[in-house]
Amino acid sequence: MPRASQQLTDKRKEEIINACKELYKTMSFKDITIKDIGNKVSFTRTSIYNYFQTKEEIFLAILQQEYEMWLKSLNSILNENSKLSQEQFTKLLAKSLEERELLLKLMSMNNYDMEENSRLERLTQFKDVYGKCILALENCFKRFTTFTKEKRQEVLYSFLPFVYGIYPYAKVTPKQSEAMKNAGVNFRYHTIYELSLMCLKNLLN
Fold it and tell me: What CATH architecture applies to the domain 59-204?
């Protein structure tokens, strides 16, 4: 593909992704349509299908971007620190999750729909980045803990399901909060950082 054509493709993909992100701030995943996204881009709505076949593919591209940014944070922890105390490491890792609120929201609420309704090639591109994040986490646990390989695997596969489910516990709507109050449920709310820190401290102790 000629350089100019590739630049246009990349520019339009980014515009579609940014339009979808903007809509997701105020609309739910199920309510957003290709038409809504098309109303926010500078080219015709039908042109979107030249880049993404479904809205789920657009959201998967957003999720891939978020994983790429988390990977960058994980690699920074590795590249900038030859040694960390357990407390320092857990704080840095918890902070890296706190900065990826959109990642956590998409994983907790819409991951299955995105993956099921995207083409295999798109899903494979995403899984490549996802796999690199898992490897970076493994390398972090290897460098900053004294655990055996078996223990590191145990910690990793306890931590990953936690990451997938953290968002609803940290981000509650006013309606959900009122319902909890009406039901008499005494629930203490925590931030993403606080929940991540608690989980990591328990896993690494």
Answer: Orthogonal Bundle (1.10)
Place of tokens 């739910």: 28
b/e string for 131-142 if b means 16 or more Cβ within 10 A?
Answer: ebbeebbeebbe
Q: In whole angstroms, what separates CA 177 from the centre of its chain?
A: 24
Between CA 133 and CA 3 the distance in angstroms is: 30
Q: Alpha-carbon dihedral of residues 59, 61, 65, 68, nearest 10 degrees?
A: 120
Q: Does domain 1-51 have CATH number 3.40.720?
A: no
Is pLDDT of 4 > 70? no
What digits encode the pLDDT tens for the residues 91-134? Answer: 999 999 999 999 999 999 999 999 999 999 999 999 999 999 99
Three-class SS state of 104: helix
